[in-house]
Amino acid sequence: MRAFLITGGGLVATLLIPLLLIAALLGGLATATPASAVNTAAIPALAVQHLDTIATVTATECPELPPLWVIAHVQAESSWDPTAFSSDRNGGAAGLYQLNEANWTDAGGAAWATAPPPADADVLQPDEHLRRAIPWVCANLRAAAAHLQATGKPTAALDGMLVCHIAGCGRLTDSATGIPTAGEAGCDRTCADLVTNYVDRVHTLVTQYGAAAGPVSVEDLPAPTPFDGLSALCTADDPTGGRCLTSATRHAHDEIVRAFGAPGPDAPIRSAGCWDQHAWNPDSDHPRGQACDYFPAAAGQFPQGQELQNGWRLATWLRTHAATLKVKYLIWQGRFWSPDTPDNNGWGRPYTGGGVYDPADATGGHYDHIHVSVRE
């Protein structure tokens, strides 16, 4: 297997990536929309075997990296073959993430005695490889995220991570958008096509491996009582600690608590927040007392398993009873829904962030919380 080497400066060391893994890729760069749920029936068998390791390492070392993206990224690199090796004049790349020797030792692994590495080399052991490589890849993600936030480039952080991996972070920092085009950041047409096709390949795999986690049944939950009062001003108490809520928003919150229980560490809703100044978003409903956020898991993390289902339960219940609760719109799992929004390829339509939020971020894309805005 040959490796494609792109040289140049960057935030993190350049990686060697096999051309064979991307030779059949289709063109067209998509916008990152990380899915949180993993369809274990669709992913490779070795990925299923090591899913607990992936979930544990991402949760403890890099909560902003969804396990689904780890699985898709490794598939694009090695097809989940832990013994994969691509030879070149620089020593080659090995293992699930196809790291070169310098990057593997930088991640804390042992240097290779031979090329390819011997069968007992730690770089070829899947569990050891994932435990070392995921935090190393996370460094790329965080470096990319910091640069993209500082420069305002439109590329999503997870896509920036992929650019760093396939081409070196210099291609991210030295390009106008974060995705190099032919003629910039030292990239010719072959290089630029390689990057865009690679990112598109991972997106395709994310979609292929993602589970359709929602919506879910809410028939067992009580229906809310209708709001029949007046709600022109932010005068009701905010039980989540904010300044105030409109009467309709307070009613919606109380009905959510009645159906799902009070927020808490062992409840379906871990935490909630309603009134907030939201100075960075002048169009927000939060400072008007007309919006609340409900977190089924820890803030900043992509929920998995039961926590993800809890989020879908709340989102589905709110959509089902939108008229009764005067719901203006919902945002959840990178999707936007309102009573006037037809479903487009799933629940609602893709959420873009409105130029304010990073839709690929756990919080910015509303993966870690359900946002509900009330009409009055």
Automatic annotation (TrEMBL):
ARB-07466-like C-terminal domain segment(s): 243-355
InterPro entries named among the record's database cross-references: ARB_07466-like_C (IPR058593), Lysozyme-like_dom_sf (IPR023346)
SUPFAM superfamilies: Lysozyme-like (SSF53955)
Taxonomic lineage of the native organism: Bacteria, Bacillati, Actinomycetota, Actinomycetes, Pseudonocardiales
Native source species: Pseudonocardia autotrophica
Entry protein name: ARB-07466-like C-terminal domain-containing protein
Source organism superkingdom: Bacteria
